[in-house]
Amino acid sequence: MGNSALKAHLETAQKTGVFQLTGKGLSEFPEDLQKLASNLRTIDLSNNKLESIPPFIGKFSVLKSLALNHNRLTVLPEELCKLKKLEILHLNNNQLTRLPSSFGQLVALKTLSLSGNKLQTIPVQLCSLHHIDVVDLSRNQIQNIPDTIGELQAIELNLNQNQISQISPQISRCPRLKVLRLEENCLELSVLPQSILSDSQISLLAAEGNLFEIKKLRELDGYDKYMERFTATKKKFA
Q1: Could you tell me the domains of the chain?
Q2: Chain-centre distance of CA 83, in angstroms?
Q3: If we measure between CA atoms, which residue out of 8, 46, 40 comes closest to residue 26?
Q4: Keywords for this entry (predicted)?
Q5: How far apart, in whole angstroms, are the C-alpha atoms of residue 52 and residue 48?
Q6: How far from 77 is each of 55, 80, 171, 191, CA to CA, in Å?
Q7: Residue 117: partners with Cβ closer than 8 Å, 6 or more residues away
Q8: 8 A C-beta contact, residue 101 and residue 124
Q9: Angstrom distance (rounded) from CA 57 to CA 182
Q10: Who is most buried in 64, 82, 174, 219, counting CB within 10 A?
Q11: Which residues of 19-44 are buried (b: 16+ CB within 10 A; e: fewer)?
């Protein structure tokens, strides 16, 4: 992509606070973007060939939304965690295996999408995000849901299309979790904690495509309590 085209994009971004440059085959994060570090609220560099994010990402002090879907990222810089205003982070279809250790410092983060990466565990840092609403970890290589999950503040957790065969009963303690998606994993009915049904906030449990017939779920103790929450929620949105 030519310098003149990039310059035009930068000039527009200066006026609008939005920098969008998708599907242009970029292999590097544009250096010149630094000049707009104090006024960009949205950056979208999806569908490119980025292999890394430079440390200067930490300078974007008013950034609210960052989309880097469909790139080639294998690691994220710790500096990303300085973005105290960041509310939306989309990193679908990259090659990430972990998150930066200080990821929990993204205090404003509400939506996190990490679908289609190479995560093998649920990052413990997510439990430090106090304003998180939606976490999408679908299409990764996650094998179990650990005890730490009980501290997760999310309202919706998507774990579809992983390799999950174990779930900690602590998931029932998530204070705000309403929607739990576990479709197409490796779950036996016997490993599904009964407390999800009888003693949690979860009002939508999606569990099709596992190692049990979905109708067997209805025979479990606590299913009636789950259905009460399910029905109440449906009425609310009807």
Answers
A1: 1-236 (3.80.10.10)
A2: 16
A3: 46
A4: Leucine-rich repeat, Repeat
A5: 11
A6: 6, 6, 29, 36
A7: 91, 92, 93, 94, 95, 96, 97, 139, 140
A8: no
A9: 33
A10: 174
A11: bebeeeebeebbeebeebeeebbbbb
Amino acid at 113: S
Q: What is the pLDDT along the chain (238 residues), one digit of tens a residue?
A: 667 788 888 999 999 999 999 999 999 999 999 999 999 999 999 999 999 999 999 999 999 999 999 999 999 999 999 999 999 999 999 999 999 999 999 999 999 999 999 999 999 999 999 999 999 999 999 999 999 999 999 999 999 999 999 999 999 999 999 999 999 999 999 999 999 999 999 999 999 999 999 999 999 999 999 999 999 988 877 6
Instruction: Specify the amino acid at residue 197.
Output: L
pLDDT tens string 108-162: 999 999 999 999 999 999 999 999 999 999 999 999 999 999 999 999 999 999 9
Q: What's the pTM value of the predicted model, to 2 decimals? A: 0.96
- Tokens at 87, concatenated: 């509310």
CB-based contact 197:173 (threshold 8 Å): no
- For tokens 């994009």, what's the residue? 9
Residue bearing tokens 């440390």: 55
